[in-house]
Structures are given as C-alpha cells and as structure tokens.
Recover the amino acids of this structure.
C-alpha cells in the first residue's frame, strides 16, 4: 500500500478517458485518494483547492501541454512532485521536464509495479517536504515568542561566546545569562545547548 500512515492524494491529468480511469482505479486499490482531470486547464482550476502529494501528468494533452502545466504550477509556487507520462519517448522533452523539476518520467504503456514504486517515492518526498514546512512554521512561531533580550543572548550563543563574554557585553551577570539561555531553550523546545545551536543554524538563524 502507498502511504500506509497517510492516504496520499494523487492528481491524474490525462485526456484519455480509459487511461485516466484505469490509473485512478489502480491508485485507489493501493490506498491513494485520487482527483482526475481531462485537461491541464481543469487541473489548474482545481490546483490550490487541495494539496496533491503527487501529480501524474500526461505530456501530450489537448490544449495546454504537460510542460505548460508544469510551468504554471511552478509560477504558483506549488512544488508538487510531478511524474510525467508519455507515449512518445521524446528525449528532448524528457530532458526539459526533468530540468524544470519533474520528479520522474514514465513511458506508456507503463508497468504497474514501476509506476506504483515511483508514486510511492514521490509521495514520500511530498510527506518529507510537508513535515519540514510544518517544522519551520512551528520554529518561526516559537522564535517570535522570544523577547528582544533573549534574541540578543541567542545571537551571542550562536556566535560561540561563553557566558562571561555575553555577561560583559550585555552588562549582566553570568547567572542571568544562564537564566536567559534556559528560557530560550524552553521556548524553542530543546533540552540541550547543542540541540539549540543545531536547530537555530538549520533554520537559518545566526548564519552570515
């Protein structure tokens, strides 16, 4: 089953009714939620109403091409993993799709197992991105809870200054510096100073 802990939503964009229906059936049998669209225009009208964990996108659509749809998603900042589907095996188009950020490229008629493995990997990537986005949002909220003085102390900590140095710079006691550091760690939900430094640097705080 794909996404056993979370039923991934896969958008199927193909102007061939039979292909679209068979893909949707296959995916639902393997634990996915699907949304089906017969054109790039219809898909783009929906995009943003829900979050897709993966997009199966036919390259040769009537109207907008798969590459056009891919570009439109990028313009909107929707970084959903796209698996391009084509019956043509066009090497130049394959290169263009991958260069523009497509997750993978599969030729029709496709092998079900290969398709399912590819979609599983794409939805795992989506889940990891979503988790990181949620982590960054939580960190931003936590960081906003710091007082101006706590932010100042944090900056000195990230500059590798010791308590006595920080105390002298801020005209406070080393014990007060320890109190500020404890408050900072509590607000940022870490237990150890190395974890605080690692988290702050990972989130871009203190980088030059």
């Amino acid at each position: 089953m794909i996404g056993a802990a979370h039923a991934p939503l896969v958008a199927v964009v193909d102007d061939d009714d039979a292909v679209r229906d068979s893909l949707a059936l296959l995916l639902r049998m393997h634990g996915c939620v699907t949304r089906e669209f017969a054109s790039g225009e219809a898909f783009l009208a929906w995009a943003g109403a829900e979050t897709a964990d993966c997009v199966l996108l036919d390259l040769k659509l009537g109207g907008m091409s798969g590459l056009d749809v891919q570009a439109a998603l990028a313009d909107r900042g929707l970084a959903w993993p796209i698996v391009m589907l084509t019956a043509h095996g066009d090497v130049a188009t394959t290169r263009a799709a991958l260069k523009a950020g497509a997750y993978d490229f599969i030729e029709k008629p496709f092998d079900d197992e290969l398709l399912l493995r590819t979609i599983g990997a794409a939805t795992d990537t989506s889940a990891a991105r979503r988790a990181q986005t949620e982590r960054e949002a939580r960190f931003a909220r936590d960081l906003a809870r710091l007082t101006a003085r706590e932010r100042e102390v944090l900056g000195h900590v990230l500059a590798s200054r010791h308590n006595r140095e920080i105390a002298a710079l801020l005209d406070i006691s080393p014990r007060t510096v320890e109190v500020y550091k404890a408050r900072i760690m509590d607000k940022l939900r870490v237990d150890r100073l190395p974890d605080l430094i690692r988290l702050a640097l990972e989130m871009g705080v203190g980088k030059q």
Remarks:
- The mean pLDDT is 89.
- The chain has nine helices and five strands.
